[in-house]
Amino acid sequence: MANVSTFDTTSTVVTDAAVLATTPSRALEGPSGRKPKRRLSRRNIILYGTLGLAALYYLLPLYVMVVTSLKGMPEIRMGNVFSPPMEITFEPWVKAWAEACTGLNCDGLSRGFWNSVRILLPSVVVSIFIASVSGYSLANWRFKGSELFFSILIIGAFIPYQVMIYPIVIILREIGIYGTLTGLIIVHTIFGMPILTLLFRNYFTSLPEELFKAARIDGAGFWQIYGRIMLPMALPIFVVAMILQVTGIWNDFLFGVVFTRPDSYPMTVQLNNIVNSVQGVKEYNVNMAATLLTGAVPLIVYFVSGRLFVRGIAAGAVKG
Amino acid sequence: MAKTHQSARPNQLFRNLNSKIASIPMIFVALVIFLGGSVWTVIYSFTNSRLLPRATFVGFDQYERLWGSARWLISIQNLAIYGILSLIFSLVVGFVLAALMDQKIRFENVFRTIFLYPFALSFIVTGLVWQWILNPEFGIQHIVRSLGWETFEFNPVYDPDIVIYGILIAGLWQGTGLVMCLMLAGLRGIDEDIWKASRVDGIPMWRTYLFIVIPMMRPVFITTLVIIASGIVKLYDLVVAQTSGGPGNASEVPAKYVYDYMFQAQNLGQGFAASTMMLLTVAIIIVPWAYLEFGGRKRG
């Protein structure tokens, strides 16, 4: 027992060892009664102190964004990025939303917001529908080569987008939809496919096979089983997929810049153009308000969805 | 599942027809876009395409020009610095945070929410916020100076020597939450009995982590490594937002090089060559991993 305490650096084990050493009979019976609580042990101070400091570091940019967006320009020039606003003003928010200029358009970020919404809704629906059907095929209706295609798809997820962008530009141009909303929706569907298909395939594979067999015996076909059995059972995974796609598509920059025309740029692209424009005086408060506005959608999704978000990224990250 | 062998086999092509029809988009994406697109880009990187792709082959000319270009060399160097440091820091920080979170703490959900929220934000938002925080006139440098240290120099927005570290700070802020989450999931997968056994044997906690838990978490580490690494190669939006590649071209990265040459300099051949190099980099990371993961045991 003495060895324990000399080797150990953490106080829990040390206290346990001490307890064991003083009352051997109780130790044999195992722990009983309430767990001793020592809130302010050295271990806890270090533990919560470190976590608290880390949390502060992560929260700082959010704080800076909020604070800066509520200050007037004179106040910004006098203080620093962290100083809280003395006079709260919402003017930067109004200006960012309705008046900020990109190029010739001076109708603010609202334009980008609505563009993003127009891109987001159909892209999410189409990409999730196609990927869920593919995942369902892969899980329940395998055919020769289906696993091979799936492997290519998964490996393709690691290929840098830059490698595939130009061939896609050519294909879309040939069909005549390069620069249109349809084109961008197709692009989002393509690049959302690996992760979403993986997600759905794994989920459908995990469902009991008997369900599928019973439905087949009852004479249900491919689409019937999908619509009547798989779809209703997979609602949670649809929510996870939606979270993934909403944040992913909203945050996209590269595809927006490559596959749309300036007047239909999504919010991220417009935000970048507003903030990094070289003309005029830099209005940091408007910039930060615009940044917050752009970040608001994924942040709301994140805070509302909570654990499901974590599940989504875990599903995306850990192979099934 | 669909392997019911009948005596009179119907035409193979029409078996599971609906499934095949439903999989057409997936097959199209896998074969035409991912495979075909990559092969096409690699092939056309050997041409002298400029404004439009042209099939006039010029051998390795584009690559010679690429590796002779100062901007590309800077891009590669930046990516190497960012990549290596980002890998080390995100793994270490992510693991330490996860280990702290795994101590049966209170408010675990609160902490996790805080650590992970930057991951929900786009790189554009991340880059713009950090551009502002690191702003020399109002941000960190200004604050430290006003605290009395007048000669303090920390200007990763306009100082070409350290600009890439500014991007690294922003990148780590955005991405470590994800690593923490993956590591935490890995830690939760470790059998409780391991901890009990090591406690009975009197092994200090840090040694248990270092010599027992981390080796046990090898698969988690490898998966995380592959995810971070393939994300690093794609690094683009963050640089565009935070520095636009500047000052000068001090913070250029390969993905930006590709974009600029393809869509702005109208020098497609250079863009293809550069993107082929990116593909090669990813292949070096992915192929051994994919071989280990999928090659050894056939999954059915």
Automatic annotation (TrEMBL), chain A:
Task: Please verify whether the record's keywords include Metal-binding.
Answer: no
Q: Which Pfam families match?
A: BPD_transp_1
One Gene Ontology cellular component annotation held by this UniProt entry? plasma membrane
Q: Does the keyword Transport apply?
A: yes
SUPFAM superfamilies on file:
MetI-like (SSF161098)
Q: Which cell locations does it reside in?
A: Cell membrane
Q: Which family does it belong to?
A: Belongs to the binding-protein-dependent transport system permease family.
- The protein's name is Glucose/mannose transport system permease protein
Give the originating organism: Rhizobium soli
UniProtKB/TrEMBL annotation, chain B:
Cite the entry's keywords alphabetically: Cell membrane, Membrane, Transmembrane, Transmembrane helix, Transport
InterPro entries of this UniProt entry? ABC_transporter_permease, MetI-like, MetI-like_sf
**Membrane-protein topology:** Multi-pass membrane protein
Q: Where is the ABC transmembrane type-1 domain?
A: 76-291
Which cellular component appears as one GO term in the record?
Answer: plasma membrane
Which PANTHER family does the annotation name? Answer: ABC TRANSPORTER PERMEASE PROTEIN
Descriptive protein name: Glucose/mannose transport system permease protein
